[in-house]
Amino acid sequence: MLVPSETRKKNLPTQDSVCLQSLRRSLVLFSCTLLAIAASLPVKSLAQDTSENDDVISVSTDLLLFPIRIRDKRGQAVKGLEQSDLALKDKDQVTAGLYFSPGADRVAIVFALDQSGSLRAIISQQHDAAVALFARFSDRSSVAVLRFAESPSLVVPFGRDSAAARAAFSFAAGTNRRTAIFDAAARALKMFDDLPRVRAERHIVVLISDGLDNASQAKASAVIDAALNKRVSFYVIHLPLFEPRAGRLAVRSPSKGFRELAQQTGGKYFLVGDADAALKLDRNNDLTPVFQAIEEDLRSQYLLGFYIRETARDGRRHRFSLSLLPTGVEYSVGRFGYSRTHDFFVNLPSNVTKIPS
User: Is 59 part of a structural domain of the chain?
Assistant: First the structure.
């Protein structure tokens, strides 16, 4: 299990934040900060460009959403669970209810494509498989594409034009030799800020790269924290470079934080190919199985949400926990491992304004 270091906590937001705790077989508390949905946004801005059937989050309620994975004793995904299979313990009564929804029908996807010369040919072959992934979700889903070398560049903004997304996978090889993976990841996160807040919509980034970052200003740890705050999951597809090692050809290790970008944000990391495949002239570069695995993973997850009462805004820390009732199942949240029970807490500033004396 990957555990956030204590040194990173000092950089986390302190105002209007909601923190997640996980207790697993010990008294050690692991925490990460997750921002509450802003209640100050005007209703019109949230409802813009959405249909009457869109489940737009009410601005009068704080709804904290977490994608979770549920597995059985064999490690297989568990389907068919309902809200009645959950047990909430909230002695302070700071929650007003639960939201629990299986699968992912509506998604907003950013494809972040490494534009370095070594990957151009491989990535350009993936346009059909990538568009097929987007097309398998509801027609209210949206897709965007950015490409990056030394800096990220938005190619296709969020929309439902699959043809534009498909065309964005074809590009000329980059001329420089510097690559800023984490800067591109940070830019992808900002792209979600202008989207309407729709309750059942999942936000994901599919990042395709060789994993070697030598130009980023952003730190991997900061990008991971931002992804957790925004509840965006990264699916990282690693198209490796190879190097001689101990007389044999081996995968060149990616930059620190590259794998963790997926593993700690609720997504998944895929390593495509090995040294033996690199030596074959008929190397198969079709990523269709990877895109299918991403779809299956998204559909096997659940969205867990807590409606937070206004009474929670009292400047105090309130803890509550959620357990799974069926035997032999457990769930994971964010960067934390699997357990039957996870503890959460909220610590929101008071809304009471003091009158000057």
Answer: no
Residue 277 has pLDDT above 80, yes or no: no
User: Which band of pLDDT confidence, cut at 50, 70 and 90, is reported for residue 61?
Assistant: low
* Domain housing 270: 106-300
Amino acid letter for position 100: F
The answer to whether residue 47 is domain-embedded is: no
316 pLDDT more than 70? yes
Please report the pLDDT score of residue 114 as a whole number.
Answer: 93
Region 263-290: mean pLDDT is 74
What are the backbone angles phi and psi of residue 125, rounded to the nearest 5°? -80, -5
CB 261 within 8 A of CB 220: yes
Q: Any idea which residue has 């594409």 for tokens?
A: 145
Calpha distance 355→332 (Å, rounded): 44
The two three-digit tokens of residue 252, written as one number = 């060149």
pLDDT, tens digit, 9 for 90 and up, residues 76-123: 999 999 999 999 999 999 999 999 999 888 999 999 999 876 677 788
Q: How far apart are CA 282 and CA 279, in angstroms?
A: 9
Under 8 Å between Cβ of 36 and 348: yes
Phi, psi of 107 (to 5 degrees): -135, 155
